[in-house]
Amino acid sequence: MVNFSLEGKVALVTGASYGIGFAIATAFAEAGARIAFNDIRQELVDKGLASYREKGIDAKGYVCDVTREDQVRALVAAVEKDLGPINILVNNAGIIKRIPMTEMKAEEFRQVIDVDLNAPFIVSKAVIPSMIKNGGGKIINICSMMSELGRETVSAYAAAKGGLKMLTRNIASEYGEYNIQCNGIGPGYIATPQTAPLRERQPDGSRHPFDAFIVAKTPAARWGTTDDLKGPAVFLASSASDFVNGHVLYVDGGILAYIGKQPQ
Ligand code: NAP
Ligand code: GCO
């Protein structure tokens, strides 16, 4: 029988106090995994712990800025001390800055690259040695539509997420022989705090133009929810995907396949 169970596994999901990371971690717990997560601020870790407790999940939360290699090393050591070797890593923590490229400061560009691309490198580098020692593991990088497409104002984010797709493929290539599978999930447009500015009601009460645009670009004719990502994440974290490596699984309601609804 195909095995989607995560019983006995330890999963680290970065930036998982809320949003997509929280949903993925919750799905992993429901499949039997022990959950570790981090956030930058203690108050958000505490908020996350309360949210996990409300769902009956005994998660471990840690304060860690994933762009800081010293903090990441300490995070991995703490998780391994508290829960044991990390079997599943989800590089979920991410930021976006929506600024026209010619107006974006180089420092702002660097900040996005740092969190969305450098950090998955740093955290994966910290976890891979113990995965090798323990006979393998799963790394899931949260990519994006912008791993494939561009749009106005998201140059740094698209560059980072495009790079993250290739980092995913390279980890798969370099460490596949150690039974480590590294894949990506490419969410479409998901209703979370990160996309809230694109969905907020206009002063006249009408829908945000981007909201209507995305619904017209999505065959499913709706924004995704974090629940839509749970099954794909459990699949890529489980032994059901042991021969899937270097793949980005787009969970986008069909956006990448669709030219978009014709104007009526
Ligand atoms: P979100 O609601 O903004 O949550 C992002 C999380 O990452 C927050 O908990 C945030 O913590 C944390 N984080 C940011 N910088 C960090 C750092 N340096 N160290 C540790 N944690 C950090 O975002 P989301 O919508 O859930 O997205 C999660 C991931 O999915 C991101 O990688 C995003 O790019 C990707 N994604 C999102 C969508 C979408 O439509 N929402 C679609 C495709 C891909 P703080 O609150 O403390 O900043
Ligand atoms: C944006 C959105 C997107 C989503 C996601 C799509 O401004 O276009 O924030 O980037 O977050 O990455 O897959």
In percent, how much strand structure appears in the residues?
Answer: 5-15%
SSE string, helices as H and strands as E: EHEHEHEHEHEHHE
> Unreliable stretches, pLDDT < 50, 5 or more residues?
none
Principal-axes shape call: globular
Secondary structure: number of strands: 7
Rounded radius of gyration (Å): 18 Å
Q: Largest sheet, if any? A: 7 strands, parallel
Bound molecules: NADP nicotinamide-adenine-dinucleotide phosphate, D-gluconic acid
How many individual helices?
7
Please, could you describe this protein's structure?
- Keywords: Oxidoreductase.
- Belongs to the short-chain dehydrogenases/reductases (SDR) family.
- This is Gluconate 5-dehydrogenase.
- Helix 2 links the parallel strand 2 (34-39) and strand 3 (60-63).
- The protein is α/β, with parallel strands linked by helices.
- Strands 3-2-1-4-5-6-7 form a seven-stranded parallel beta sheet, sandwiched between helices.
- The chain starts with 9 loop residues before the first strand and ends in a 13-residue tail after the last strand.
- It contains seven helices and seven strands.
- It is globular.
- D-gluconic acid binds at residues 96, 98, 144-146, 151, 154, 157, 187-189, 194-195, 198.
- D-gluconic acid binds next to loops.
